[in-house]
Design a protein that fits this description.
The protein folds into 2 domains: 10-56 and 73-190 and 225-399, no CATH class; 423-576, IlvD/EDD C-terminal domain-like (Glucose Oxidase, domain 1). Helix 6 (133-148) packs parallel to helix 7 (165-174), helix 8 crosses helix 20 and helix 10 packs across helix 13. The radius of gyration is 24 Å and the shape is globular. The chain contains 22 helices and 16 strands. The strands form 4 sheets. It has an 8-stranded mixed sheet with strand order 9-10-14-13-12-11-15-16. Strands 2-1-3-4 form a 4-stranded parallel sheet, with helices on both faces. A two-stranded antiparallel sheet has the order 5-6. The two termini are 45 Å apart. Strand 1 (75-80), helix 4 and strand 2 form a beta-alpha-beta unit. The protein is α/β, with parallel strands linked by helices and 607 residues long. Belongs to the IlvD/Edd family. Catalyzes the dehydration of 6-phospho-D-gluconate to 2-dehydro-3-deoxy-6-phospho-D-gluconate. It comes from Pseudonocardia endophytica. It holds the Pfam family ILV_EDD_C. Residues 75-381 form the Dihydroxy-acid/6-phosphogluconate dehydratase N-terminal domain.
Length: 607
């Protein structure tokens, strides 16, 4: 039975109205631009091409050449993040042939318009390549724009899953927001070694009680085959957002790769473009869809990285989202899911318990989501309470479960895991930061302790291995912001800090870097802005200064006399390597990137 939403929650309505008013000029300019691009004779653009231009675009189309050049057949651009090094993207190898076949059957054509890079933070953690990770999002946005710039296409299917890939694809495609666009994911790998067991082995290895062989065995049993990693980091947060924002087909996010249902959903994505069933992307991504994305992220305790990615994606559509909007929504959105690292279950368990269909049903029923949105499946978010299945080989949808099948993983609004969202915004004399609270136990949500200051994560790990970290502390890891070195994730700190916490110490982290979409049990004030490299307060913190991180009141404060602190000189930033592993190619990005709370963007305006 379809959900009939009640009136919108007053706080959700107020935030949406505020976003709409703040964005009015930029959004109007954006809509004017894409509507001009869609108006005849501008679209389809290839009809106005010179013969030589069109011949180049159709030269290698084989049996589709006549359809592309001599008839009004719709042409689907495929923009793919395929590579076979990343488990999440390896399934995309077969997608282009499937999409082309489905497009042909529907009376259209499909072409691979371009590829985009897809790097894995799991591989580059703690390595120099991680300093390219955040910037890869903007490279992907630019690459997507290059792919679509040939004016050959009537719509697009975007193939991407992981951390920076989906936000980059969305940002780039929104520059062509007059085109209908569907994102087609690969789905999660099947469940392997439980995440809790993997985390235990990591922590024992950090203590020196598990061998490298034991650690590699545990990691390999966890990350064991094609598909997205099953913990609830940025990759799976991406899928959740694309579905609740109406850019996936209903129920597409968490269907495993290599299954008939997965293939059927991919083929249907192509058909939606060929049959003009999907609306223009720029009309789908509006302030209501953006607020829906924030609400779903908070309700599941999703990736902290999306406090930047959602801001950047929204900006690409002319919508100005702020951390204040996250904060206001967090106070009224309940936590409905426990997925590792916020619990022991993985994303497959979440889907089996009721998944996206139940999550959306519950949030709609409480007035926490906008129902009156435009989606690639048609008008109204209540369409996304349905789940896909195959009936005699045909893709159809039916209503999803009305209640959770496992309340240790997914609950309703009337019985949440917590009354507020899994992410909080922190303010104080150290700047502004975000913290993921959903995995932090209640007795660790307030930490007041002396600072231990490090200028990179290697220095902290060296101190841990040398035995000099003993007692309560707030680890300050600075000069890790986007201007300093590209804002690498500092996830390798998690096992060491977890060990210290398990020894009974009060431990927290304050950093202008990222900690990972899978930030865990140690409270971490992340993305501190202004960053140390731009003279932010973190640059003047000294060993022994007392810091109070309070996730309940939303504050992060240095408990030092204000006059004394203000009188401290700002030290020179440490000398860091800016060459090697391609880092020398990104100097212009480091110079141009905006602050974290504005999306840490290069390819978008920061004002």
């Amino acid at each position: 039975m379809t959900v009939t939403p009640p009136d919108l929650h007053p706080a959700v309505a107020a935030v949406t109205d505020r976003v709409r008013a703040r964005s009015a000029t930029r959004r109007a300019d954006y809509l004017s631009r894409i509507r001009t691009a869609a108006a005849p004779p501008a679209a389809p653009a290839r009809e106005g091409m010179g013969c030589a231009n069109l011949a180049h675009g159709a030269a290698a189309c084989g049996p589709d050449k006549i359809a592309l050049t001599a008839t009004p057949a719709r042409n689907v651009a495929i923009v793919t993040a395929y590579n076979d090094m990343l488990s999440a993207h390896q399934p995309f190898e077969t997608y282009p042939a499937l999409i082309k076949s489905a497009a042909r059957e529907a009376g259209g054509v499909a072409q691979v318009a371009g590829g985009v890079p897809a790097m894995c933070d799991g591989i580059t953690q703690g390595r120099e390549g991680m300093e390219l990770s955040l910037f890869s999002r903007d490279v992907i946005a630019m690459s997507t724009a290059v792919a679509l710039s040939h004016d050959m296409f009537d719509g697009a299917v975007l193939l991407g899953v992981c951390d920076k890939i989906v936000p980059g694809l969305v940002m780039g495609a929104l520059s062509f927001g007059h085109l209908p666009v569907v994102l087609a994911p690969a789905g999660p790998m099947s469940s392997g070694l439980p995440n809790k067991r993997k985390a235990e082995v990591r922590q024992r290895h950090a203590e020196g009680t598990a061998s490298r062989e034991e650690l590699l065995d545990a990691e390999s049993k966890s990350y064991h085959g094609p598909g997205t990693c099953t913990f609830f980091g940025t990759a799976n947060s991406n899928q959740l957002l694309m579905e609740v924002m109406g850019l996936h087909l209903p129920g597409a996010s968490f269907v495993n790769p290599g299954t008939p249902l997965r293939d059927a959903l991919t083929a249907e994505a192509a058909r939606r473009i060929v049959t003009a069933a999907a609306p223009p992307m720029g009309e789908v991504v509006d302030e209501r869809a953006v607020v829906n994305g924030v609400v779903a992220l908070l309700a599941t305790g999703g990736s902290t990285n999306h406090t930047m990615h959602l801001v950047a994606m929204a900006a690409a559509a002319g919508v100005e989202l702020t951390w204040g909007d996250f904060s206001d929504l967090s106070s009224i959105v309940p936590l409905l899911a426990r997925i590792y690292p916020n619990g022991t279950a993985d994303i497959n368990h979440f889907q089996a318990a009721g998944g996206m269909q139940l999550l959306i049903r519950e949030l709609l029923g409480a007035g926490l989501l906008h129902e009156d949105v435009v989606t690639v499946d048609g008008p109204g978010l209540s369409r996304y309470t349905r789940e896909p299945f195959l009936s005699d080989g045909e893709l159809v949808w039916r209503e999803g479960p009305g209640e959770s099948l496992d309340k240790t993983v997914l609950r309703g609004v009337s019985d949440p895991f917590a009354p507020d969202g899994g992410l909080r915004v922190l303010d104080g004399n150290l700047g502004r930061a975000v913290v993921k609270t959903s995995a932090v136990e209640p007795d660790h949500r307030i930490v007041e302790a002396p600072a231990r200051v490090f200028d990179d994560q290697a220095a902290l790990l060296s101190a841990f291995e040398g035995g000099s970290l003993d007692g309560d502390m707030v680890a300050v890891v600075r000069y890790q912001g986007p201007r300093a070195n590209g804002m690498p994730e500092l996830h390798k700190l998690t096992p060491a800090l977890g060990v210290l916490q398990d020894r009974g110490h009060r431990v927290a982290v304050v950093t202008d870097g990222r900690m990972s979409g899978a930030s865990g049990k140690v409270p971490a004030a992340l993305h501190v802005t202004p960053e140390a490299a731009q003279g932010g307060p973190l640059a003047r913190v000294r060993d022994g200064d007392v810091i109070r991180l309070d996730t309940l009141t939303g504050t992060v404060s240095l408990l030092v006399d204000a006059d004394e602190f203000d009188g401290r000189p700002v030290p020179s930033a440490p000398s860091t390597a800016t060459a090697g592993t391609g880092r020398e190619l990104f100097a212009a990005f480091r110079d141009a990137v905006g602050p974290a709370d504005r999306g840490a963007a290069v390819a978008l305006p920061t004002r």
